[in-house]
Amino acid sequence: MHCPFCRHSDSRVVDSRTAEDGSAIRRRRQCPNCGRRFTTIETTSLNVMKRSGAVEPFSRDKIISGVRKACQGRPVSDDDLALLAQQVEETIRSNGVAEIDAHEVGLTILGPLRELDEVAYLRFASVYQAFSSLEDFEAAIAALRVDRPDQSEESLP
Ligand SMILES: [Zn+2]
User: How far is the CA of 59 from the centre of ligand 1 (A)?
Assistant: First the structure.
C-alpha cells in the first residue's frame, strides 16, 4: 500500500479493527518515510453484472441515485436514502456472493423502499418489474393493501 502523502511504497499497520458487522476491516497505517498516518478499509469485492453483460463494482451511490428518482416529491430525506442503500448493501453482502445481477439488486431495493414510502415503491417497482398495464399496478397495490391491516393492528396500543 503506497503512502497517499509521499507515495512511499511501504507502510506499517499500527492498528486493525473489524467493523461491528464483520463486513470490513479498518487498518490504521503509518508511513515509515514521512511518518504520517492513514486508514485503509478492507472489504470483499462485490460486483454487479449489468443486463448488457458489463460488470462494475457495487456502488451505494448508484442505488441512491436510482431510488432518488422514484422518490421525487415524496417525504424522503437524503438520510433515508443513505440508510436504504446501506440496508441493500448489507443484505447483498450477507448472501456471501462476490457477484450479483443488477436485477437482483433491484429486487433487494424493493423491500426497504416499500417500508420507506409506498408511492416511491410503486414507481420503482413499475420500472423495475416492467409493469405494462393497469392490472400490474392494481396487483401491486392490492399486495400493499393485504399487508397493511396487519401493520395497523400491530401498531395499536
Ligand atoms: Zn509517506
Answer: 29
